[in-house]
Amino acid sequence: MSEVVSFKVKKEIKEKMVKYKDRVNWADELRKFVEEKIKQLEAEENFIKILKELEKSDWSVPNNFSVSLVRECRDSR
Questions:
Q1: Cystine design at 9: which of 13, 24, 29, 72 (Cβ 3.0–4.6 Å)?
Q2: Where are the domains of the chain?
Q3: pTM of the predicted model, to two decimals?
């Protein structure tokens, strides 16, 4: 089910929207923009949650861990 959302724009913008209505489906464009913006905001929120969880963790990577893994991979060939 869909809901109606309305917003105001300057008169000049509305006139230009009317001018280009045969070339642009404004409802679709605005809907896509809102959906993408919401996805972006949700991704930012999730990123922040993940960072906070990582900050709480008490594990760490030992010194030279990457170096030893690279050497191990090279030596196994």
A1: 13
A2: 7-58
A3: 0.68
